[in-house]
Amino acid sequence: MKEIRVGITGASGYIGRRLTNHFIQQGHFVNVISRSSRKFLVHKQLEIFEADLSNPDPEVIKAFIKKVDVVYHLAAELTDHSKMLGTNVRGTQAIVNAVKGTTKVLIHLSSIGIFDFSTTLTIHEDSPKHPLNLYEESKLKAESIIQNARDTEQINAIILRPSIILGLEMKSHILNHMKQLLDKGIDLNISREVVANFVLADDVVNALIFLSKEEDAIGENYNFSNDLALADFLGLIKNILPSQRRIHFPGKVFSNLLKVLKWLGIFSISDDGIAFFSNKTTISSSKIKEKLGFQFDSNYPVFLKEYLNKPK
To answer: Rounded to whole angstroms, what are the CA distances from 267 to 58, 133, 234?
Structure first.
């Protein structure tokens, strides 16, 4: 097996940790960028570069990139609006600037949320874009930086756009909301047209590794979701939770109820969370599956059983 060196931003996050461990276990070397080296255990195959991507030091980024063959740009600010544009946009620009003029492969983890879900029933790679919040706006701007560098500098870049990622160590507000409702005896009669745009973290990690080996993926964007009917997903949760009598609500009535409960301050849920329970837009992953041959391996029933039964 050929020894390689990979660079990973966002290596302290759930996806980044899994990716880092994979390459180290395979005998490869890993460069990581982090605001603090204390987040990582010392390892002979791991080199840590301290940097804040919201205010990136070009010299540190250049040193981080110098010896690597593949760069995984996973770092993203999800909640702090004051750092969101810095980390997600300027940080991406710094990484792109460092790979210009090289043959290194850049794999960028973006978001499916950049698309317009209100006018499109199936999201494809070229579907209309319409981000609804600052985070998604920053991810679209980051993509634009990468696309511009592809066009003008011919950098070797791949973009992966996952939907809502579920992982055992990742807090999911949507999944927790569904569990809370069922625990309180509320059941939903939801149309089978309503779609849950989920993907498991294991599949995201596998796809990132897979793309690094596919020359045909360079220069391409890939949407990534393992959709299923929301009714089926709720059924899987009910099969795991203790059996009890529940009040059945029609899906449309429930969505309106959530809006009222949110307005009254009784139930804390975002507008995106409310929209989730009436979403009928599917995400096509046919490009990565049919053109590259990627296969989803992860199993929702197994994941949910572990997630719902894990110690709090």
So the answer is: 45, 21, 19
Four-residue CA torsion sign, 264, 267, 271, 277: negative
CATH number among 3.30.70.1290, 3.90.1150.10, 3.30.40.10, 3.40.50.720, domain 5-162: 3.40.50.720
Enumerate residues 6+ apart whose C-beta is below 8 A from 22.
205, 209
Do residues 61 and 45 make contact, with C-beta atoms less than 8 angstroms apart? no
Nearest CA to 72 among 147, 22, 11, 18? 11
Handedness of CA 165, 143, 127, 130 (dihedral sign): positive
* Residue of 171, 224, 173 lying closest to 198 (CA atoms): 224
Q: What are phi and psi of 60, to 5 degrees?
A: -70, -45
pTM higher than 0.85, yes or no? yes
Cβ distance 198 to 232 under 8 Å? no
Q: Tens digits of per-residue pLDDT, 228-277?
A: 999 999 999 999 988 777 777 666 666 776 777 667 676 666 777 777 88
